[in-house]
Amino acid sequence: MPTMPAILATTTWTSLDVWIVAIGAISGVACALPGVFLLLRRMSMMGDAISHAVLPGLALAFLLTNTRDPYVMLTGAAIVGVLTAVFTQWIHSAGRVDEGASMGVVFTVLFALGLILIVQAANHVDLDPGCVLYGDIEAGPLETLRFAGLALPRSVWINGGVLVINAAIIFALYKEFRISTFDPTLSTTLGINATFMRYLLMTLVAITTVAAFETVGSILVIAMLIVPAATARMWSDRLGNTLLVAAAVAALSAPIGHWLALEGPAWFGYPGVDTKTAGGIAIALGGLFALSVVFAPRHGVVSKALHRLRLSVRVAREDLLGLLHRLGELGRPAENAMVNRLMRATQVGPITLGLAMRSLRREGLVTGRGRVQLSQRGAEAARDIVRSHRLWETYLEQHLALPADHLHHAAELLEHVTSPEMREGLERETGQPELDPHGKPIPRSPD
């Protein structure tokens, strides 16, 4: 992906472009903050339901007041947004309907009603139904509003105001939101009204959704609510960090999305044609999420694959040490070809086996090429592995009465998670035996 300086260098940006990006970034961050809690509550589709269901409130506000005053719009949206949550919960509880199904019933009915009212409102008020559905962020900088002597685009005032409200409420009630999100029962026990916190979140989502109408419309606003939060969850398991990363992802998607809207059509043979910035922002969010799925340090595909590989190599290392110790007990030479054959019989792949053997040689635990031998340090490590294995076999036989033919596999798994302290505990619990259930000597720890 091009870096931010490269993006800016390929396009001539005017003050209009800068304001478009600013509006998109502010709106995105405002959506991302409540979106994190929607995601954590497993209510992602509730954001989609509210973004569609607030249309009747918006249209009724137009029809009743004949004005596009933002305060009227936000009030109508907040009322219908809360009613959406109330109706969904009522249908779910009273009708014993799955929550997803009740959500689908409520938002589809309200969305259809909203579309009818939007068309009716458009006949009386200067309202573009397409703008409501898909947004018109490009026109945002053209209408300014003066407040406290400062003239800024109206969208900046509206979305910025919602951002301040969301940030202030989440900051002030951070503990309450956190507890009620992760454990509503504990929240109630501590005197925090989980139901109130739920409806407060729904109110914030409703207000944020309407504020974002002029930016991305009611259709794409779900991307700004959920995708930054989902992306942030790939990077962090802590709530505070997740909120910060989600805000950063939302802000970053605005310049990238606007650049895609300006330059993207030329890639498909339509030079000089611009597309909707809102769509570009949604694509940018999807791209950032895809990159996070692959490269996030903890939950990314690459990170998980590397972690599994490191774990497989560690297990293979310990299995190799144990095998070499057992061959030594039998007095058999550990020929390299035989060791490889025996290890692969335990379903260890050639790549994992090669990395494990290379690691043991690098650390000086084994020596030799044609014939593998344990060094002094390697012999001590191998003794600990075999000791853990045979102590576990003894423990499982004594305390769980497992049959003899079931002991080896269970002990083979447990030996890889046994610490020195656990080995000493096993020895005490089993009465410091000298032989395992198969009659093999249990290596003693050095004094």
Secondary structure blueprint with pairings:
Elements: H1 4-10, H2 15-40, H3 44-53, H4 55-65, H5 70-94, H6 99-122, H7 129-134, E1 144-147, E2 150-153, H8 154-172, H9 174-182, H10 184-189, H11 194-211, H12 213-235, H13 239-267, H14 277-295, H15 301-330, H16 336-345, H17 350-362, E3 366-367, E4 373-374, H18 376-400, H19 407-414, H20 420-429
Write structural notes for this entry.
The chain has two domains: 209 residues, ABC transporter involved in vitamin B12 uptake, BtuC (Orthogonal Bundle), CATH 1.10.3470.10; 126 residues, Winged helix-like DNA-binding domain superfamily/Winged helix DNA-binding domain (Arc Repressor Mutant, subunit A). It has 20 helices and four strands. The strands form two sheets. The protein has a two-stranded antiparallel sheet with strand order 1-2. A two-stranded antiparallel sheet has the order 3-4. The chain starts with a helix and ends in an 18-residue tail after the last helix. About 2% of the residues have low confidence.
